[in-house]
Amino acid sequence: MQSATNDRLAVTISPSRVALILSAIVIFLALANIFVHLAESSFGISPEEMFGLYNFFNMGEEGNLPTYVSALNLLFAGGLLSLIASLDFIRQQKQNWYWWGLAAGFFLMSFDEAAQIHEGIVGNLMIMKFGRGEGVMYYRWYQFYIPLLLIIGLLYIPFVRRLPLRYLLKFGGAAVVFLGGAIGFEMLESYLNYYDEGGKNVSRLFEETGEMLGVVIFIYTLLLYLQEIRVELLFKLKEQEKDEAVYENSHLSA
Hints:
Elements: E1 2-5, E2 8-11, H1 15-41, H2 53-57, H3 65-90, H4 96-115, H5 117-130, H6 141-155, H7 157-162, H8 165-194, H9 200-228, E3 233-236, H10 240-253
Antiparallel strand pairs: 1-2, 2-3
């Protein structure tokens, strides 16, 4: 919703509406993923016969629509965190560096999601160093990230203790949903791949959907926080009268 006064354009964002739109996009991507897999497994339509739709919607592939939607959501969250950090810095709040740290983390995760660093680089380096794992540890990349997350979690204990309970519960819920998808179902997929079991497509569906919904919950909570502290986005517009006055004065002086 927008409102304009003289030289300012105020933009009002509804947290619930944003969350609803983002959730609808995630649900659409999940249904599209199910559709292309059913078309292949139940109706015998090969990926080549789907005119590119299989790779475009398949959550098991990279560099497609689900990948970039996920990356953009992470980028959006990083932008909101940067805004909160900037406001806390202006107000000289002690915890502003915690918000900056979260913003940097989400920007890195967005880049990682788009470039697939965790699997393409970190995972391969771990395999080169330690070899392939077994069972749920068949994929190596999260064996690097889990200790890193634990260290970050310990560093953020003072920040978490300062959060109001209502935000702590929402942020915690977002983390559970996100990590349940990103690591929990990734471990299940690792196990299924190692033992060459079926069900990998279902595991990937829950993995990617969980990741995206976790970020949506996080974005919703950040928007609620910004709404509570009464943040308005104001865009300054040039006044037409001033521009015309400058134009007329330049002609008179000439």
